[in-house]
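Quick illustration, no need to memorize.
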Amino acid sequence: MGKNYKMSVEEKSFLASYDASKYDNPSLTADIAVFAILTDEKSDEYRKDPEQRLGVLLVKRGNYPYKDCWAVPGGFAAKNETLNETALRELKEETGVDSAFLEPFGIFSAPGRDPRGWIVSQGYMALVDVKKCNVMAGSDAGDAAWFTIDVTEKNVKKSVSKNEAEIIVRYEIQLASEVPGTKLKAVVDEIRKYSNHHETVAYDIVEDEGIAFDHAEIIVRAYKSLHERAEDAGRIVFDMMPEKFTLYSLQEAYEIILGEKLITPNFRRKIAPFVTETDEVVTGVGHRPAKLFKRNLEAFYSK
């Protein structure tokens, strides 16, 4: 309610007799797809930079439903908090990170998505620097781990008529963790229908081996959102980088997310306004040490 709004006597009387129990009320949750750039620190190739991969954080459920399956972090909203506050709280509890890029990307409300009842979830995408994370399982989780994520996309159907069209794109997900024997996979179809030029989008989970609830869909949609926001040198990728980084590692992070090689001169020209060169270089490497850069904060916080 607006701060300057004043209720009339009639309105107060109406609310005093209002029976909210006439309507079913859903439980509200926040589910967070947490992404980071993972580095293979075990590489013994001294003269090469460690390999980087895109990672997503998952927790292993310790209770029913979906006991022993993996899920994105999340939880139920408390009565006196916003869903954004719920997401921040859950992110802190699961990763130890209390400051990160956090953005809503979709609402998940399909009937039957949770066998416990009517539960509506706000999906969030979070981007973190993995070195600042202290990953830990929550009270209802048996384990928590980073998974490398590989997504392949292929067109399944395209049907176009005079006033209608249907396009189905299939996303196949492969998730791998250092947890022994833990490999997950899922197949999710994105179904776009057009009627009189107006679009509706739905998702169908075709396969979800080892992934709880509808979280395969959550992962796919969060991944798509990350990809779209990173295009054209989107600045959100900086939230996955350490405080100081090489331009090579920054470009590689973009390439990992976008799934394509970038032309180095073009990338550096686009990114130049957003970085500042430091007087430091990478140490402990078997090749010519590269210069370290950091964010140009003035560019990030300008209009």
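The chain has a mean pLDDT of 89.
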